[in-house]
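Revision sheet: structure tokens.
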Amino acid sequence: MTPPYVKEHINNGIATIEFFHPAHNSLPGDLLSKLTQLIKEAGENDEVKVIILKSGGDRTFCAGASFKELININDAETGRVFFSGFANVINAMRKCPKFIIGRIQGKTVGGGVGLASATDYCMATKYASIKLSELNVGIGPFVVGPAVERKLGLTGMSQIAIDANSFYDAEWARQKGLFTKVFDTTEELDEAVTEFAQNLCSYNPEAMKEMKQIFWKGTENWDDLLAERAAISGRLVLSEFTKETLKRYQ
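Predicted:
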């Protein structure tokens, strides 16, 4: 079995950052920290003009937070730190001066929907259905909510947050604005992502930097906002409801 990893490959101005975990690409704290670090470094690297965010494997882009870690949270501070992992990645993506292209090859759940939403331009396959499942375990998509709402609008975000049992297909996500294009195969997706990234490399980096700042205008308070949201989730995960629900996954 392939061990978990986060790795980066830079070629001709394109930094490809890829993560993988054998548990459906769920993301424990150490992988989230590594993702945050690599996104920050790529943003500061003058050789990098554009970033591609992807995951390994074929079926799932990201299953969200690591349930193994979630089950072991026993105090509010540990919970806050745990949920801050996705907050740190989203804030790193938001502040990164380079455009980030999302490559979503399969299903994405919870925190994974937050990562997809925090990209600047996101393409997917028809298998990339999305779900916000947090309410099922007694918490909610508090940390990823601002990023998801920014892409789907409040109506779309609240719909999938409340309907926590359902996957919404890739075409629904495209119509709502999360995905720009949906392809039949992963091969077609990869071809389109590569071609698009190469085109971006021919543009003025300063112009793209200025555009990104404009696109993310109004999110300057997210460092504090997402920290507050992480604290809410960290408190709720200790509730009797959530503890009892999580026992089913042990």
